[in-house]
Amino acid sequence: MLIDTHAHLDFEEFDKDREQVIRRAFSNGVEKIINVGCNCERSQASVDLAHKYDNIYASVGVHPHDSAKKGIKEVCQMIYQWAKDPKAVALGEIGLDYFHLQKESDKSIQKKVFRAQLDIAKELDKPVILHCRDAYEDMLDILKKDRINRGVSHCFLGTKEAARRYLELGFYLSFTGVITFKNAGEVINVIREVPIERIMVETDAPYLAPEPYRGKRNEPAYVRQVAEKIASLKEMGLNEIEMATTENAEELYHI
Q1: N- to C-terminal Cα distance for the chain?
Q2: Helices of type H across 3-39
Q3: Which of 24, 69, 150, 245 has the most CB atoms less than 10 A away?
Q4: For residue 55, what is the DSSP state?
Q5: What is the SS3 assignment for 141-182?
């Protein structure tokens, strides 16, 4: 049995067949799903979806791309209330993304919203689900200064050095269907070196579908392809990967 630790089943891509997608996942070896919020609207939707299904859990938070859309105080008040829900198991996805910066001041706004949400995680004693793109140095610096040591770097595509520093802080690394691509790059070597006790699997559905579904809509049932690739890279049995990654997720999220 597997846990898809990062999906967005509340997105409009699933509006026509959400029930079938969820049923297909559970009938194909997916035991639980973490549905991840990325702004205020989607965080509410994530909590609502989690209450509809016993084996779906929510994460709530504001993605760095949405950092400037509402005032920090307003955002935090809403996120705090949703994060207190018994089925909200984490703050996320939150973080830093410098890939599509419109102006340099956006970095400052992202950092303020990120740190405000880290404060909520600390107060409520919940882990964080991190989004990081082209911002590993700033991200790791903030986590160290704010003494955040419980969470996961989602869709990890960083270097061996970045991976080492996350692990030193106590974080897990989660991998998506990108690792099945022929041009996956350095992340392949990262997986070979990271202890299985610190690895989780995810789809990031509806995005990043693994081979042989690349280019199509992703869904939680395809998390098996990610696990199979990790098993191949680490020369371990699929059952070992399933057991380890499931235990990791259950321990981090207390589910």
Answers
A1: 14
A2: 18-26
A3: 245
A4: T
A5: HHHHHCCCCCEEECCCCCCHHHHHHHHHHCCEEEECHHHHCC
239: tokens are: 């059952």
Mean pLDDT across 139-146: 96
The sheet with strand 56-60 has its strands ordered as 2-7, 30-36, 56-60, 88-97, 128-133, 151-153, 172-175, 199-201
Could you report the per-residue pLDDT of 233-246, keeping only the tens digit for each? 999 999 999 999 99
Rounded to whole angstroms, the Cα distance separating 132 from 214 reads 22
d(CA 113, CA 117): 6
Distance of CA 116 to the CA centre of its chain: 19
Residue 114 has pLDDT above 70, yes or no: yes
Whole-prediction pTM value?
0.96
Gap between the Cα atoms of 162 and 156, Å rounded: 10
In tens, the pLDDT along 173-190 reads: 999 999 999 999 999 999
Q: What are 67-89's pLDDT values in tens digits? A: 877 788 888 999 999 999 999 99
Q: Report yes or no: 4 and 201 within 8 Å, Cβ to Cβ.
A: yes
Q: How far is CA 216 from CA 57, 68, 116, 177, in A?
A: 25, 31, 36, 12
CA distance 157 to 175: 8
Assign 158 a pLDDT band (cuts: 50, 70, 90): very high
Residue 109 structure tokens: 């706004």
